[in-house]
Amino acid sequence: MRGVRSVMSSQGVRPRLRIVGVVILAAWIGLAALFGQLKPIKNGCTMTYMYPTYIPISVTDGATPPGRYGLYLYHEGWRKIDFKEHISKLSGVPVLFIPGNAGSYKQVRSVAAESDRAFQGGPFERTFYQEASLFRGEGKDTESVEYDLSSQYSNRLDWFAVDLEGEHSAMDGRILEEHTEYVVYAIHRILDQYKESHDTREREGAAASSNLPRNVILVGHSMGGFVARAAAVHPRLRKSAVQTILTLSSPHQSPPLALQPSLGHYFARVNQEWRKGYEVQTSPGGSYVSDPLLSGVVVVSIAGGYNDYQVRSKLESLDGIVPASHGFMISSTSMKNVWLSMEHQAILWCNQLVVQVSHTLLSLVDSKTGQPFSDTQKRLWILTRMLQSALAQSFNGVTPMKISNELPMLASKGSESQTSSCPMDWRDDALDRDLYIQTSTVTILAMDGRRRWLDIELLGSNGKNHFIFVTNLAPCSGVRLHLWPEKEKSNSNLPVCERVLEVTSKMVLIPAGPAPKQSEPGSQTEQAPPSAVLKLEPEDMHGFRFLTISVAPREAVSGRPPVAVSMAVGQFFNPNEGAMEVSSQSMLLSTYWAKEIFLKEDHPLAYNLSFAISLGLLPITLSLKTAGCGIKTSGLPDGETGDLDKDKLCKLRCFPPVALAWDSASGLHVFPNLYSETITIDSSPALWSSQSPEKTTVMLLVDPHCSYTASVHVSAPAMSSRFVLLYGPQIVGFSFAVILYALMRQANQWDQNLSVPPLLSAVEYNLEMPSPFLILAAIPLLSSLFFSFVMAQPIPPLTSFTMVSLICYLLANAFISVLIIVSKFVLQALALVHTTVKYRCQALERNYSFAFLRWFSILASSFVCLKAIRILKLNTTIVMTLAAVTLVTFVHPALGLFVLLASHALCCHNSMCCIMMASKRKESVDQKNEAERKTRHPSSRQESLSVDLSEKSFVETQADIFNHRHGLLILHLLAALMFVPSLAAWFQRIGTGQSFPWFADSALCVGVIFHGVLNSRPESSILRSFPSLLGHKLGPHHMYFLAGYCCFFSGLDLAPYKVFYAIAALGYISLTLKISQVNKNDLRFRTKSRIHRN
Asked: By the 8 A CB rule, do 350 and 306 touch?
C-alpha cells in the first residue's frame, strides 16, 4: 500500500494552504447562512379565517391539455349550496387566481374570503392623511392626476382558481408553457360561463340588467404571476380579455432558479413580447397603424420584502418590462396598512395584505357598469392610491423626488385637493387659550384643546429652517396645523384669516406599534408611538410668519381615567446637525465589536444614519437604549422614583423611536417601536446589472427630550444568509468557470509534454497571486465594467461589485474543491474494494476445492465471448453516445447526461483500479527482489529495475487518463445537476402525458455529450486539431480559457443556464473537427505514442 499512497499523494489529494483557506471561508459562510435561514421569522401577520367551498366549472372539448387541469369557482360560507344554481347566478367581476410552483388552487381562499367580507362591509373609513398621487409632466407643467373613490362598492368579486395539479412550474420551461396555455383556456371559459349564466337567466325570465364582463382580472402568486403575464401576450388570447394583472411575490425579470436553458429562454421571450406590446404599431414605411397592443393592460407587482428568501425583490421588479405609465412594483414593507415583510407563502394568507388587496380590487369596479374601469390611467391611479404610501421616494429625510415626464410617483408635496382645509370646522371658541412656544421643540401630551403658536422667524433661525412634526393624533379630528402670514408685511387686501394656509393634510401616515395600556385606572402609561409625520421645507414656509398647532379638546368622562396616550412632538431643526455616516470599516468591525453612537438630549428629532455599505448586503442589528431623559432636572425627589428603572421612567416621557430605511428597488422599510431590531432592506447591491445605491440611509425619529445610546452590530448569520440568497446564481456560474480553468491548466500541461496534473492541483494553481488569479478573475470583472460603459448601461458601485464578485469566485473554488475531494475519495474507495475483491477471487480460484467458482468463471468468459457482447465492447463509445443522445432528445436531458457521467465514472474507476493493481504488483516485485538480492548476481537487480520502469510508465499513463477524465466528470456532473430540478418535475408528471423536451435543451445537451465523447482522452482530444488563426496555433487550453470567461460572464449576469452555450459550443466545434478529419482522411493527428514515452 506504500505505492498506492505515493500515487495518491502525487495526484494532489492533500489540498494545499490556498484550498484550505477558501474551503474554511465557504464553510463559515455556509454554516452562518444555514443558521440564519433556520432562525424563526416573526412577520407580524394575522391569520385569515374562512369557510371555503370550491365549485368545479365544467370543461369543454377545447381544454389544453385535456383531463389534467381544472377550474374552480370559490364560494364563501358554511351553508350548503346548489352548485348549478349558484353558477347560473354569476353576475360579479371575474377574478382568476393562478397558483405558483407546487401551489394549490385552494390557496385562493384567504383573499377570496376577505373580498366577500370587504364587499359586505364597504370601503375603508375616510382619513385625512396625505395620499399617494400620480403626477405627469415636468417642471412647471407638472400636474396631479386626481379622481374620486366611490363611497360604496357596486359589485362583488367572483373568484376563480385554476388547478394545476401542484406541478413544479419553476423548474421546467415546458410545464410553464403548458400552464400558460391552460390559463388562456380558463380565461375564455370564464367569459363564456358568464354568457351561459346570463342566457340561462334570460330563459328563466330572471335576467338582470348587469353588463357582461369583457375581461378577467388576473391574480398570480409566485410563478403564477409570470404565467398571468405570459397569458396576456399569448397569440390565442382574445382581444382585451386581460387588462389588470396583480402578482404576489412573482419573478418577472428571470426565474428564481435560472438553471434550465428553456426556462430562461421562455422568460426572455415573454419579456420581449411585453416590451414590444407597449410600442406603437407602425407600418414598414413608419406610418402609424394602431396603439400599442398592451396599451390597456396595467400590472402591479407586490413583493414580500427581505423575509421572502425564495424570490428577491430585484426579480419582482417590472423595470424594462412594463413602463411606469402602466404599472409599478411595491414591497409589502411600504404597502399602506401593511408595512410588513413576509415569507413567500405567508403573502397568501397575511390578513393585513389580503384585506388591502381585496379593497383595492373592489375599488377598481365602475359603479355605472359594474365592471372594472376601462380607463387605464384611472385604474393605475386607484392602484397607486390604495397600495402606496405618500412617504417621499427619495430618502434623504422626507424630501421631494424629482418628477420625470410621464412617470407616476408618490406625492411628496400636496396637490390642491390635499392641501385644502379640513372638512370639519373648529370654532375659535372651542380652543381654551393660546400658548406661545419660545423653544425650538414643542411637546403635546394630551388633547387639551389649546392652540400653540410658533414664530417661524424666531425659532427657525441659526439654520434651523426645517420643521418636522410627529404625532399619534389623527389629522383634522385630533390636530390641525396652519401657516399664518404677517399682516403688516402683506400687500394683500384679504383679511388675515383668509390668507391662512392649512397644511394638516400634508401629514403622512406611518405604521405605529400597539398603544400602551394603563396598568391601573388613573396611572400614567408609556408614551404612545407616533402614527404620522409631517415635514415642512423652507420653501413651504416662505412668506409666512407663524405656525400654529391646534389640538382638539376631548371632554373628560366622569368615572373614567383620563386618556394618556395622546402625543405630538414638533421641532425646528437643521438637517446637517442630525446626520452621521458609518464607514465601511466600522461596519465590518462591528461584526465582532459593536459600534456605539451617543445622541445627547435636545438632539434633532429626525436623525439620519448613513451606512457606507448597503444594508441589503450587511444587515445590522440596531439597538437604542435610553441614557437619560432629564430626570435629574425634573424636580422630582429621589423618593418618588422608587425602584423604577431609568429606562422605564424615560419611556413614560419619550415616544418610542421609529426607523425608516429606503431602497430604490424594494421601497420603504419602516420599523416602529425600535429598541432592538435587525434592519435589513431587500436591495441587490454589487450586481453587474444593479442600480441600487451602495449606501443606505436610515432615518431615526427619536424624541429630543431623551438621550440615547445607539449600538450598531452587523449580524453575521443575517449577512451570510443574504449573501447566499443574493449571489447564489453568481456562484453557480463561477463554478463552471473554475472547472473550465482547471481543464485549461491540464490541457496546457499536456501540450508542454508534461503529465496531466490532478484536478485539485490545477484549481489550486489557478488561485496563485498575482498570476493566474488576476487573469482569470480580475480581468473578466474589468471587462464587464468596460462593456457596461460602452453599452451606456448603469455601472455598479466599483468597490462592492469587485469585492463581492471576488468572494463569490473564491466560494466557487471552494465548492469545486470539495466536490473534487469527495468524488476522488469515492472513486478510490470503490477501486480499493474492487481490487481487493478481485485478488480474493483470484486466490480462491487457485484452490481446486472451489469448483463452483471455476465453473462460474468459465460461464462468464463464454458469455463475454458472444458476438453481440464483443461488438458492444469494441464500440462502447458509439453505443454510449447513441443512448445518451436518444435520452436527451426524446426523454429528458438529465437522463442522457447521466449516461455520459456513467461513462466518465467507469473510465476513472478502471484507471484507478489499474493504478492500484500496478502498485500492488510493484510491491510484490520489490519484496521478491529484496529477498533474492543477496543470493543472486547483480544482473537480477538490473532486471528488477527494468520491470520497475515499465510499471512506473504504465502508472503515469493511467494517472494522466484519470486526471483528465476526472475533470470532465466534474464538469458534466455540474451540467447534469442543473437539470435535476427539471427531472424531479418530470418524474412528478409520469403517467399524465409526457411531451418531448424543448429543442433548445436537447440541442445544448447534445453538444455537451459530444464534448465529453470526442475529448475523452488527453492524447486524442479532437480540439487539438483546430486550425491556426492568424498564424497562431489554437489548442484546447485556449478553448477552455474562452469558455471559462463565458461562464464567468454568465455568473455575473445571474443567468447560470447560459454556461451551456459555452460547453455546447466546445462540443459542436469538436464534432465539426471530427467530421472534417473523416472527410479528409487525415491521419496526421495521432498522439497515442506519448502514452509510452517513458
From this structure: no
The answer, yes or no, to whether the previous bond of 770 is cis (omega within 30 of 0) is yes
The burial class, CB within 10 Å (0-12 / 13-18 / 19+), for 518 is middle
Contact present, 38 and 66 (Cβ < 8 Å):
no
DSSP strand pairing (546-551 vs 479-484): antiparallel
pLDDT at 630: 67
Half-sphere exposure of 108 (CA within 13 A, CB side): 30
Which residues are CB-contacts of 736 (< 8 A; sequence separation ≥ 6)? 971, 974, 1044, 1047, 1050, 1051, 1056, 1059, 1062, 1063
In angstroms, the CA 930 to CA 33 distance is 57
Find where cell 485556449 sits.
1038
Q: Which residues of 1002-1035 are buried (b: 16+ CB within 10 A; e: fewer)?
A: bbbbbbbbbbbbbbbbbbebbbbbbeeeeeeeeb
Backbone φ and ψ of 697, nearest 5°: -110, 130
Q: Rounded distance, CA 335 to CA 664, Å?
A: 15
Of residues 697, 704, 711, the one with CA closest to residue 574: 704
Which secondary structure element, helix H or strand E, spans residue 884, and what is its range?
A: helix 876-890
Residues 372-411: tens digit of each pLDDT:
999 999 999 999 989 988 875 434 433 333 323 333 333 3
Confidence at 231, pLDDT banded by 50, 70, 90: very high
Spatial distance between the Cα atoms of 1029 and 1036, rounded to a whole number of angstroms: 14
**DSSP secondary-structure letter at 260?**
S
Q: Which residue has the cell 377574478?
A: 95
pTM of this prediction exceeds 0.85? yes
Answer yes or no: are the C-beta atoms of 730 and 41 closer than 8 Å. Answer: no
What is the spatial distance between Cα 985 and Cα 1025, in angstroms, rounded to a whole number?
41
Number of neighbouring beta carbons within 10 Å of residue 576: 9
Q: Which value, in Å, is the radius of gyration of the alpha carbons in the chain?
A: 36
